[in-house]
Structure formats: C-alpha cells, structure tokens
Amino acid sequence: MRTPLPPLPGLLAYEATARLGSITAAADELGLSSSAVSQRIRVLEARLGIALFERQARSIRLTPMGQAYLPIVRGAFDDLSAGTTGLFGPAAGRGRLTVRVQVSYAMTWLMPRLQDFHDCYPHIDLRVVTAIWANEVPPHEVDLEIRHGNGRWAGFTADLLHEDQAVVVGSPAHLEAYGPLTGPADLEHRPRVHVIGYDDLWQRLFPHTPPPSRGVEATITLDTTVAATQFAASGLHCALVPERFARAAVRDGRLVVLHDRLVPLRQAHYLLQREGEAHMTPEGRTFVQWLIRQDIEDPPLQPGG
Questions:
Q1: Spatial distance between the Cα atoms of 199 and 232, rounded to a whole number of angstroms
Q2: Torsion of CA 160, 161, 165, 168, to 10 degrees
Q3: What angle is formed at CA 27 by the lines to CA 24 and CA 28, rounded to 5 degrees?
C-alpha cells in the first residue's frame, strides 16, 4: 500500500510561506486568510510530528527540519507542474521561456535539436539569446542560463548539466591526406587548429606534443569552438574540440574522428539561476528535462568503437 501523503493544503501553505517569508503574503497568494494558512501549517506539522517554522512576535522562519524538507516539497510541485504543462499545455495562454547560452553551445549542439523541442512543446514560446545580445536582454528577463566553466559565478546558483570531453576531428579530406592520428609524432606534419580557452588540450592528449614543422603552414588560432569545427570541416586542419560540439558534424559526415581517445575537460556546462529566485518555472523545468533527454537519446561519440 502507498504510504499516506501529507495533506496537500498544508504543503501548499508551507511552501508559499517559506518562499515568501510571510504568512500574510502566503495568504494573499493562496486567496486565504492568514489564520487559515496558519491552521493548515499546524495540521501539517502535527501530521509530520515536527515543527517546520519558528514563530516569533512579528516574524516566522524555517526550522532546520523545515529547511531540509523545503527542496523535497518544491521539487514535487515543480515536477507536477512541469509534467502537467508538458502533457496538457499551460492552464491559461502560452508559456514563455528565455534561455541564455554561449554561441558555440547554441550553434553546434542546441540548434540542430531545437526543432524537436518545438515539436514536443508547441505551447512554449522559447527565446534563445547569446552574449551577442547581452545588453539588449536585461538579466531579469532571462529565466535560465547555460554556461561553461568551473561552476562558481557570483550572484548565481549553478547545477551541473553536462560533463564534457574533447575529441580530435578533421574533414574527410584531412583524413585522406594525413591518415588517422596515432601518436604525437603524427602532429608534426599536419596542420591543426588551436582554440582560445582550450590551449592545454593538445598537451593533455599528447604530453610531448611537438610544434608544427616548417613544412606545415602556420597554426591557426580561433576564439570559439564553433569557428574551429566549421574551419576544420571545410579544410585540412584538424581540431581538438568538445565532443558535444562536434557530434552533429561527425554524424552527418562533415567531420571524422581522427584519434581513439577522448580528453576529459576540466570545466563543464552548468545550469544557472540568479540567487534568491524562488524556484524554476514549469517551462524551465520542461526545457531542462528535454535537455537531459537529448543526452540519453543521442549519446556521445565513441572513438574507436
């Protein structure tokens, strides 16, 4: 038998009071009197056998157990809201979501899959913005942000979204001209691309990577991985780029994997929200669940497999 659930009216009153920091504000949001909200919380506390709030003369705050219980309740409400929205659409009108991403993430990984999101959730109006429009879209209009880094940004909470590895790729013409990459000696006679911000990857792949020989044209350095993958696909240079960003180009034949080793990246993609935000919107949770599903349905490349 299913374990009896706590009373839903009490959970709603508890979550609203914890989020808004006030019984009066929670009563306004729920359309109840303050005494009704207080009573529902007391019934919930009696059912759980714990005090969720410390009540003072003019304020109320969560107890340690009340603080620990809050993410569980919020997560359950968010899952229910996102699932309902995903299946039936928003209760009134269309849902809206603004997501800020980096250019390489947008162009090489997100865009090839975005039609699927639209097809699955046609009721969500999605706006994707990049740093190009940083000054045109105020921070308060951005619901979610996906950023690559170490997971620490002032003013944001960050949750790990994607861990990534780098892969060596080149065009079919590069493979025909130079063959597969088998060791550091092979690099001496082939042109390669360097990407700003990923300067250590060649050395981490081959600790004793030689410089390009005099018989090879000068090394090209580019500032984004999207530029590096496009350049490698159109010429004879090889590139060492995040596997996620090369995946679509390898699958459609514009790039080929040249070496059977992936290099773990020291940074990852994180999902950011501004500190102090109550919780993710149903549209935001739907988008994140869709992103996670993309990794399940389209797994990383397996060089040499």
A1: 17
A2: -150
A3: 90
Q: What is the pLDDT of residues 227-274, one digit of tens each?
A: 999 999 999 999 999 999 999 899 999 999 999 889 999 889 999 888
* 133-168 tens-digit pLDDT: 656 667 778 888 999 888 888 888 888 988 889 999
Tens-place pLDDT, residues 85-130:
667 665 555 688 999 998 889 988 899 889 999 888 888 899 999 8
